[in-house]
Specification:
Helix content is 79%, strand content 0%.
Length: 218
């Protein structure tokens, strides 16, 4: 795979998993009480947090796997299972199961302190796990060893930066995008992204099981 093809694969995979269009209603709801400058600051902080988390896993994620004795094939299989659940949720328009715990905790916190307004959702839930969640973390860790040449980490970081810039543009124009696409348009895009994620999931499981099956047959 050449560099251009790899960048396209990385960008499309991250776009499908992060799903910035699907994040528009969530971002719009969380920042509905803010003016434009506040929304911009909140979004920039969320993107900075997400970028830091993803770059950390790009640079040291595989060392962490080695520390715990986890093989890349095992991580591929686990990642494929996670992706498959994400894709099914998107195809069926269900609440994302990897965000449920965060959402419940966030809702409980709001109920416990009804008089205290939460002004800064930038770190949680926007930065983590909406943008930098299990899906995107798994994606960057899977892409890094597949990168061509000697600058694999740099290519994945470039793809992350590109998708975060696109996410920034879409979320800052959230109100306009909602009016243009409407609920139906967003649902169609979500289902297309869900189909792509499930296909990526199946391929990850195949890639992870391949070496294991070969060892068993030898």
């Amino acid at each position: 795979m050449d560099i251009t093809a790899f960048l396209l694969l990385s960008f499309s995979s991250l776009f499908a998993v992060i799903d910035p269009l699907g994040a528009i209603p969530f971002f719009s709801g969380l920042t509905s009480h803010m003016d434009h400058p506040q929304k911009r600051r909140t979004l920039l902080k969320a993107l900075a947090v997400a970028f830091g988390v993803l770059v950390t896993f790009i640079l040291v994620g595989h060392q962490v796997l080695e520390l715990f004795g986890i093989t890349l094939d095992a991580f591929r299989i686990a990642g494929g299972i996670i992706f498959f659940g994400i894709g099914l949720d998107m195809l069926q328009s269900k609440p994302r199961r990897w965000q449920t715990g965060i959402k419940r905790a966030y809702a409980a916190d709001r109920q416990e302190s009804e008089e205290e307004e939460i002004d800064d959702p930038s770190v949680t839930p926007l930065g983590i796990p909406l943008i930098a969640g299990p899906g995107s973390i798994t994606t960057v860790m899977m892409l890094t060893p597949q990168a061509p040449g000697d600058f694999g980490q740099g290519l994945v970081i470039a793809a992350v930066l590109g998708i975060l810039l696109m996410t920034a543009a879409l979320l800052m124009a959230a109100d306009v995008v909602l009016k243009r696409l409407g609920r139906t348009g967003l649902k169609i895009i979500e289902k297309l992204m869900g189909l792509l994620v499930t296909v990526i999931a199946v391929q990850l499981v195949i890639d992870g099981l391949g070496p294991i099956v070969k060892k068993m047959l030898v």
